[in-house]
Specification:
Bound molecules: adenosine monophosphate
EC number: 2.7.4.3
Helix content: 40-55%
Shape: globular
Number of strands: 7
Strand content: 5-15%
Distance between the termini: 11 Å
Structural class: alpha/beta
CATH topology: Rossmann fold
Subcellular location: Cytoplasm
CATH architecture: 3-Layer(aba) Sandwich
Function: Catalyzes the reversible transfer of the terminal phosphate group between ATP and AMP. Plays an important role in cellular energy homeostasis and in adenine nucleotide metabolism.
Keywords: ATP-binding, Cytoplasm, Kinase, Nucleotide biosynthesis, Nucleotide-binding, Transferase
Organism: Candidatus Woesebacteria bacterium RIFOXYD1_FULL_43_18
Radius of gyration: 17 Å
């Protein structure tokens, strides 16, 4: 069973995706992390990421499907951050048909724009471990030196604005299309991590037992 988790930046997708992968042993495909790793060796990618711009559709879809093919990943995957545009969805759909892969469940974390900006501005990364914290919703534990945490370039105000407008312009039309062809389960993302996780996990369990 493959799952697509969608939501604007800052909706808690990454946190929930990790919890779901721990509970249900999905392979986690996180588009942002996947690209950041590739960007270590690719300057063009570094530029897209730093500016909060999307990697062009064809290029992105081909990176992802090549990676999935090379690693034999066809089932039990939780997708986070891909597909995120209509163009990517169409390309991905073609690949899925070709490989006889299904998307069994689409879940959407909903959150207001004000809350998104508030949360993203509070996101920090530990440069030593790569671990992401949120000074509001997912505080670093005692022992972590908060002053050493860094803010990602694309979590700075100008890039946040860009990423949110891209979500509206590019991802929302894909969600509208998905709603025509499948059920999109909406979960309120403006609640404590645990409460959101209970809803998502219940939905996954229910879908698995069908
Ligand atoms: P995220 O961590 O999901 O917010 O992604 C970080 C950045 O990676 C985005 O701002 C984009 O520059 C890039 N990115 C992530 N996913 C995609 C995608 N599906 N298509 C194009 N660019 C992406």
């Amino acid at each position: 069973m493959n799952i697509l988790l969608i939501g604007p930046q800052g909706s808690g997708k990454g946190t929930q995706a990790r919890l779901l992968c721990d509970r249900f042993h999905f392979s986690y495909f996180e588009a942002g992390a996947f690209l950041r790793k590739m960007a270590e060796k690719n300057e063009d990618l570094r530029t897209y990421l730093a500016g909060g711009n999307l990697v062009p559709g064809q290029e992105m879809s081909s990176y992802v499907t090549t990676y999935l093919d090379e690693n034999g990943l066809y089932d039990n995957i939780l997708f986070d951050g891909f597909p995120r545009t209509l163009e990517q969805y169409e390309a991905f759909k073609g690949w899925m048909e070709n490989k006889k892969v299904n998307l069994s469940l689409v879940m959407l974390l909903t959150i207001s724009e004000t809350e998104t900006v508030r949360r993203l501005s509070a996101r920090r990364q530990d440069p030593a471990t790569g671990k992401i914290y949120n000074l509001i919703t997912d505080k670093p534990p005692a022992g972590v030196d908060v002053s050493a945490l860094i803010q990602r370039e694309d979590d700075k105000p100008e890039a946040i604005k860009k990423r949110l407008s891209l979500y509206k312009e590019q991802t929302e039309p894909m969600i509208a299309e998905l709603k025509k062809v499948t059920e999109v389960i909406e979960v309120n993302g403006e609640r404590p991590i645990d409460a959101i996780f209970q809803d998502l996990a219940r939905t996954v369990e229910e879908r698995m037992s069908r």
